[in-house]
């Protein structure tokens, strides 16, 4: 029996492509709907997140990661883990892929696909709220998918935004309301439990890309941002029940289930989407396991030389 490869960033460095990855996610949503299951275990602010998906004809993926917010103080990464990829018909393990590699490409490609389906085609200015690893990958992804886009960064730690801006050739701002008002696309990539993006700052025609919140106690956009927007998600199954960005306002009646107008299956099929240049669109990137599976299959294909 052939050994199972363990694939890391170094194994595919320079061979993956953001637009191709977004298209792989789109193609995955043209097939059967995924069966998805999530498990969260917590210890204070620490989280063990395990996500599994099965797509008929594509296979099975199980990704488990630990999220330890205090690890940077120990000179350790805050997120660590791996994904096991299984062949569809026999259940044979075909690869183990480093979770950082899968998550990096899945997260930013998910947002890029959402923006390509929902943002105005003439979007030229991107604001990223946050200056961590996800923000860095978003810069790459959006520049690939929206050639010539101008990128501005804002972070609660202004020095972090300035450092990432200098490293990537982006701009930075310390005036968040003004930066939001000037942007065509606003992406949030924080670990915040309280809103950092306020609806009163928005203007018609914008697209909001909400990424950071993944737990029930996390929010990045306030209620007014949601009520001013037409809301879409990458997956109904992974965003509505346990992510605070939508679970909290749904529970309080700020929005209803009917206000969530479609997921990526609907968007890719053309059954939902932007209706006018003036409306504000909001895309909640929940990053479900089916997206990990689609991303993992693309990574394996590239690793194999396909």
In short:
The chain folds into two domains: 6-102 and 290-303, 2-Layer Sandwich (ornithine cyclodeaminase, domain 1); 120-288, Rossmann fold. The protein has 306 residues and is α/β, with parallel strands linked by helices.
Explain how this protein is built:
The chain is of the alpha/beta class and 306 residues long. The chain folds into two domains: 6-102 and 290-303, 2-Layer Sandwich (ornithine cyclodeaminase, domain 1); 120-288, NAD(P)-binding Rossmann-like Domain (Rossmann fold), CATH 3.40.50.720. Helix content is 33%, strand content 24%. The protein has ten helices and 13 strands. The protein has helices spanning 18-28, 99-118, 133-145, 158-168, 176-182, 223-227, 236-239, 244-251, 264-269, 289-303; strands spanning 6-7, 35-43, 46-55, 59-67, 79-86, 93-98, 125-129, 150-154, 171-172, 185-188, 207-210, 229-233, 280-284. Strands 9-8-7-10-11-13-12 form a seven-stranded parallel beta sheet, with helices on both faces. Strand 5 (79-86) and strand 6 form a beta hairpin. Helix 2 (99-118) crosses helix 3 (133-145). The longest helix has 20 residues, at 99-118. The protein is globular. It starts with 5 loop residues before the first strand and ends with a helix.
Overall form: globular
The helix-and-strand class reads: alpha/beta
Report the sheet with the most strands, covering strand number, pairing sense and barrel closure. Answer: 7 strands, parallel
Strand content: 15-25%
User: How many whole angstroms does the radius of gyration measure?
Assistant: 18 Å
- Helical content (DSSP H or I, runs of 4+): 25-40%
Could you tell me the CATH topology label of the largest domain. Answer: Rossmann fold
From N to C, what is the helix and strand string? Answer: EHEEEEEHEHEHEHEEHEHHHEH
Strand order of the largest sheet: 9-8-7-10-11-13-12
CATH H-level superfamily title of the largest domain:
NAD(P)-binding Rossmann-like Domain
CATH class of the largest domain: Alpha Beta
Number of strands: 13
């Amino acid at each position: 029996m052939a050994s199972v490869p363990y694939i890391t960033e170094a194994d595919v460095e320079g061979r993956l492509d953001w637009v191709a990855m977004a298209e792989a996610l789109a193609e995955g949503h043209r097939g059967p709907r995924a069966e998805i299951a999530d498990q969260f275990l917590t210890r204070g602010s620490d989280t063990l997140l395990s996500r599994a998906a099965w797509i008929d004809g594509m296979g099975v993926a199980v990704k488990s990661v630990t999220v330890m917010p205090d690890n940077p103080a120990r000179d350790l990464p805050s997120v660590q883990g791996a994904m096991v990829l299984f062949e569809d018909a026999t259940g044979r393990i075909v690869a183990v892929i480093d979770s950082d590699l899968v998550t990096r490409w899945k997260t930013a490609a998910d947002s890029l696909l959402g923006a390509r389906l929902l943002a105005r085609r003439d979007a030229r200015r991107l604001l990223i709220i946050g200056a961590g690893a996800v923000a860095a990958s978003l810069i790459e992804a959006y520049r690939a998918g929206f050639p010539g886009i101008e990128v501005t960064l804002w972070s609660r730690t202004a020095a972090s935004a300035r450092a990432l801006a200098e490293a990537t050739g982006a701009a930075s701002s310390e005036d968040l309301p003004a930066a939001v008002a000037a942007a065509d696309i606003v992406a949030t990539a924080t670990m915040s439990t309280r809103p950092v993006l306020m609806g009163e700052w928005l203007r018609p025609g914008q697209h909001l890309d909400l990424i950071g919140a993944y737990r029930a106690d996390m929010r990045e956009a306030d209620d007014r941002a949601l009520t001013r927007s037409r809301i879409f998600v990458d997956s109904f199954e992974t965003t509505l029940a346990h992510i605070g960005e939508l679970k909290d306002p749904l529970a309080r009646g700020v929005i209803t289930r009917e206000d969530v107008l479609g997921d990526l299956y609907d968007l890719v099929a053309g059954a939902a989407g932007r209706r006018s240049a003036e409306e504000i669109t909001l895309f909640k990137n929940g990053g479900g396991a089916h997206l990990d599976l689609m991303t993992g299959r693309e990574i394996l294909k590239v690793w194999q030389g396909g």
